[in-house]
Amino acid sequence: MPAAPKILAVASATDLDFRYGCTPAWWQIWKGLYEVGVDLIVTPYRGRAVESPWWRTAPNPLYREAELFAGARGVAARLKGDTLLRRAEDQPEDTLGDRLTRKTIWSYVTPRWQRHLDRILERERDIAAVIVFTVPMAHLRGIPTHLRERYGVPVVFYDGDVPMSLPEFGGMDTGFNYYHGADPSEYDLVISNSEGGLDRLRGLGARRAEAVFWAADPELFQPAPVEKEYDVFFYGYGDKFRRESMQALIGEPSRADVDIDFALGGKDFRGDVGNARLIGDVPFNVFSQAISRGRINLNVTRRSHATVYASSTCRPFELAASGAAIVSNPHEGIERWFDVGSELRVVSSADEALAAYRELLADPGAAEAMGRRARERVLDEHTYAHRARQILDLVGLRAPVGARG
């Protein structure tokens, strides 16, 4: 049996309290890598290092500085009367403040992170690859070239937010515009959640770009033995890039049929949610239970992802693994992952959404059968053990064992 490959993961965060959209998925990918035999070391760019049964950690070398910076951004947002420093949804400007921030990071943060990674590679000695998980690419400028030249190790950038992370969208307001001031050609490989975004990544300079779609851990996401509480349930963080779809799938139908109970989890919804009742945050450890409490679960994909072919998001896989009856807004390429009509429903308007809700609510058996088929599809094709083996293959490493579950 080949030895376990050792991978160093430089992660945007390991602490779920930060509510970064990718962090729960990173946990599942890292667990998937463990399941196929990888010895993983995770060091976070934001927050404290969080140990788990599936990986080792190295500390955040600039924890205090990062928290002070995040606090300053929060104060700046509050002075503007908001909770976040928001960017435009289309072609956001690379402002003078953005450029000054990058220069400060390059002079102070980047060299300290380079020394930190040097220490880890010198201590471990047999690191087979370094994978950067959605740390703003510009902040590590020069480090991939240094690591490759000094240690002969491949360096991979994993962007789980394409196309929203691209300069023309600018990413979530909780973070940075990844690619302003960055050089993707420094990386041996750029992995993307989006097949349709690969040409754009190559246009930005990536020498090699490959798609690895999101998935779900079927042990974490599975049908829960709970009572149904909501007719139609949606959970998400904010409505940026999906305000119109939320109006069509939630706002208008909830007013058109007051007998249907709509429940909306999450926060930072600034558009039309109609008569949906707001239930607030749903802790990640009970998320699959919340899904199972809904007779119908919504997948409302942000416009940035829905309009670029096969730009995967976590949510349809999580809902499917939980056995949910899924109703989704249109999403280019969704048929790559699920059989539309059999494993989930897609609706294009408020009228279509309302008709689908009434049909599924009137026939709970059919809704449950659709959810079972969706979960079977996940088990066959869309677990993180599947994705972990794909990542190792792309990086040129062998998985020493099959999946442990």
Classify the beta-strand content into a percent band: 15-25%
Largest sheet: 7 strands, parallel
Q: What is the averaged pLDDT score?
A: 90
The appropriate CATH architecture of the largest domain is 3-Layer(aba) Sandwich
Roughly how much helix do the residues carry, as a percent range?
Answer: 25-40%
Return residue spans where pLDDT drops below 50 for at least 5 consecutive residues. none
The CATH homologous superfamily of the largest domain is called: Glycogen Phosphorylase B
Report the strand count.
13
Shape: globular
Structural class: alpha/beta
The CATH class of the largest domain, by name, is: Alpha Beta
Q: Give the terminus-to-terminus CA distance.
A: 19 Å
Across the major sheet, the strand order is: 3-2-1-4-5-6-7
Quaternary structure type: single chain
Radius of gyration, in angstroms, nearest whole number = 21 Å
CATH topology of the largest domain: Rossmann fold
Discrete helix count: 12
Give the ordered list of helices and strands.
EHEEHHEHEEHEEHEEHEHHEEHHH
Q: How many structurally independent domains?
A: 2
Can you give a write-up of this model?
Helix 4 (143-151) links the parallel strand 4 (129-133) and strand 5. This protein has 12 helices and 13 strands. The mean pLDDT is 90. The strands form 2 sheets. It has a 7-stranded parallel sheet with strand order 3-2-1-4-5-6-7, sandwiched between helices. The protein has helices at 23-35, 63-79, 96-124, 143-151, 198-203, 243-256, 287-292, 303-306, 315-321, 350-362, 364-381, 384-395; strands at residues 6-13, 39-46, 56-57, 129-133, 155-159, 189-192, 209-211, 230-237, 262-267, 277-280, 294-299, 326-328, 345-346. It has 2 domains: 6-214 and 384-395, Glycogen Phosphorylase B (Rossmann fold); 230-381, Glycogen Phosphorylase B (Rossmann fold), CATH 3.40.50.2000. The protein is of the alpha/beta class and 405 residues long. Helix content is 37%, strand content 16%.
